[in-house]
Every structure is written in C-alpha cells, then in structure tokens.
C-alpha cells in the first residue's frame, strides 16, 4: 500500500463553505499531496489556490481524515491521510481549475453544503469546522469591541 500525506482546507466566506465538484461528480473540499519541503499549511493553502483560485488565511487546524482507494494506474491500494485547516477568505470570487478535472464549485450555505458533500467524513469535518469557525469569529468580534 502507498501512504500519502496530504493537506486541505475547509474554506469559509461568511456563513458559506467552499465545495468543488470533481471529474467523478463528487462534491469535495480542496486538498492535495504534501510535496517536497512544504509544510502541511503550505500545501493546504497551495491546493486552495491551485484548485479554486482562492487566497485564504489559515485560522486553525480542523482535524485529520484518512481514506483508502485502489489506484488503477499504480495497480495497488493508496491511503491518503489528510491534515485539514479551517480557512477564511475575503472574496467569493473563484476560478475553478478545469485542467485538474474540476467541473464546478462555489461557496454554499452550510446546510446546503452538508447535503451536497459526497463523503460522510467530509460532512462531519465541515460541520465541526463551521462550529469552531463561528466561535473564532465571535471571539474576534469581542476582542475588537474591547479595544
């Protein structure tokens, strides 16, 4: 089995989350393999930029997921372990990278997004990340008011 370390972003804009539709018509989050000397944060930010054209800031870790699949090209199983980050962007403008096989994408309200997301562990990740994101935003507002 091939083990790959990956990283990705749960990217929020206000009360919406970024989802991408891949070549298999699956609704997913931006993620990719950690390459060379990249840190997981570098890889997550890079994948968000490359896959969706979004500049996003990392606010916090979101957790880890892992999934396995059989690679037809490699003729063996692959295990992707993904470190996720809660991210925030100041714009909804995105540029879907069709060269990477993405067909569609956008920022969707959380309730709608949870119904769209293909994989249950990604649904849980978004749900928990959104709760953490809301708490961080609330704390940030309190701090600004206190100044």
CATH architecture: Alpha-Beta Complex
Residue stretches low in confidence (pLDDT < 50, at least 5 long) are none
Structural domain tally: 1
- How many individual helices? 3
Report the end-to-end length measured between terminal Cα atoms.
54 Å
Number of strands: 7
Could you state the CATH homologous superfamily? Answer: Nucleoside Triphosphate Pyrophosphohydrolase
Q: Characterize the overall form.
A: globular
Percent of residues in helical segments? 25-40%
**Rg result:** 15 Å
β-strand percent reads 35-45%
What is the fold-level CATH name, i.e. the topology?
Answer: Nucleoside Triphosphate Pyrophosphohydrolase
Highest-level CATH class: Alpha Beta
Which structural class do the helices and strands define?
A: alpha+beta
Please state the average pLDDT score: 95
Largest sheet report: 7 strands, mixed
What is the string of SSEs from the N terminus onward? EEEEHEEEHH
How would you explain this protein's 3D organization?
- The protein is of the alpha+beta class.
- The chain has one domain: Alpha-Beta Complex (Nucleoside Triphosphate Pyrophosphohydrolase).
- Helix content is 32%, strand content 39%.
- It is built from three helices and seven strands.
- Helix 2 packs antiparallel against helix 3 (120-146).
- The mean pLDDT is 95.
